[in-house]
Amino acid sequence: MPFVTTPDQVTLAMLELAQVGPADHVIDLGSGDGRIVITAAKRFGARGLGVEIVPELVRKSRELARAAGVAERVEFREQDLFATDLGRATVVTMYLLPAVNLQLRPRLLALAPGTRIVSHDWDLGDWQPERTVTVDAPDKAVGREKLSRIHLWIVPAAVHGTWCNAGRRLEIVQRFQAFSAALSATASPVPLVFDGRIDGTTLRANGMASLELRLEGDALRARPGDGATAAAWPAEALFRRAAGRSC
Ligand SMILES: C[S@@+](CC[C@H](N)C(=O)[O-])C[C@H]1O[C@@H](n2cnc3c(N)ncnc32)[C@H](O)[C@@H]1O
Fold first, then answer.
1. In whole angstroms, how far apart are CA 22 and each of 34, 40, 47, 100?
2. 147-154 β-sheet, strand order
3. How buried is residue 160: exposed, middle or buried, by Cβ count under 10 Å (0-12/13-18/19+)?
4. For residues 178 and 128, what is the distance between their CA atoms, to the nearest angstrom?
5. Which one, of 92, 60, 96, 94, lies nearest residue 78 by Cα?
6. Which residues neighbour 56 within 8 Å (Cβ) at sequence distance 6 or greater?
């Protein structure tokens, strides 16, 4: 991955897409001259960390941070991005290569639910982004079309498996932020089957606006829907993970 900068208007668009704000801790993996983290601090009030393997670029980033008046809120480390602890990140930004993105994907998926990930140009394989935006980039150093694509992912809670609540069993099959689920109740012979999307810790069923599950610690709190769902799911319920495959 050579050093190629993200143009300023693309940097802004990346941070806006992730809705970066003062409560955020932005980690840029392969931070180059530090512009993404410095802009996150200066324009959006965030804190941040840039990791970069080229020492000269780390020195330059620190100088630019001082010049921008944000040296207190950002840190630049000469460090291999693969050895970087991402645990504090609420937002991860990347302008890397497709193969590197894929190598990082398991670690990104293991971040806290709700963590936003923004990548310049390259995607994360079959983990579909929540949104993709195209930005004019007339001063982009690479490519002929002078456009940048930026992608946003939101880390989904890991909910795949069997969940139990007195007399009810909820089987969830998860693929990234998409899920399908079957709720069986001893009282009802027909399982309630639904699918939907996971937004951080919240699971929303497609076409059943009021049916919602939320991961709270290691339990899933389920709010029943109306109409057809109410029979199988009459009241709010707390589901716990099954020890085995059955409840
Ligand atoms: C395409 S540039 C992006 C720079 C900056 N993030 C931006 O968007 O302007 C990628 C950067 O990653 C750095 N890099 C490559 N491999 C790295 C690694 N293993 N650990 C840390 N940085 C690395 C390169 O030196 C380069 O500065």
1. 18, 9, 7, 29
2. 74-78, 47-52, 25-29, 91-94, 116-120, 147-154, 131-136
3. exposed
4. 10
5. 60
6. none
In the block, residue with structure tokens 């290569």:
97
What is the pTM for the complete model shown? 0.93
Q: Is 43 helix (H, G, I), strand (E, B) or coil?
A: helix
CB 152 within 8 A of CB 118: yes
Please tell me the distance from the alpha carbon of residue 156 to that of residue 110, in angstroms, as a whole number.
Answer: 9
DSSP state of 104: H
Task: List, for residues 141-186, the tens digit of each pLDDT value.
Answer: 888 888 999 999 999 999 999 999 987 889 999 999 999 999 887 7
Give pLDDT tens digits for 84-123. 999 999 999 999 999 999 999 999 999 999 999 999 999 9
Residues having CB within 6 Å of any atom of ligand 1:
1, 3-6, 28, 30-32, 35-36, 51-54, 57, 80-82, 95, 120
Q: Which residues contact 49 (CB under 8 A, 6 or more apart)?
A: 25, 26, 27, 28, 37, 74, 75, 76, 77, 84, 88, 89
DSSP letter, residue 141: S
Distance of CA 45 from the midpoint of ligand 1 (Å): 23
- The number of beta carbons lying within 10 Å of the beta carbon of residue 97 is 14
CA of 106 to the centre of ligand 1 (A): 19
Which SS3 state, helix, strand or coil, does residue 208 take? coil
CA of 51 to the centre of ligand 1 (A): 8
Tell me which amino acid residue 219 is: A
Whose C-alpha lies nearest to ligand 1, atom 6? 31
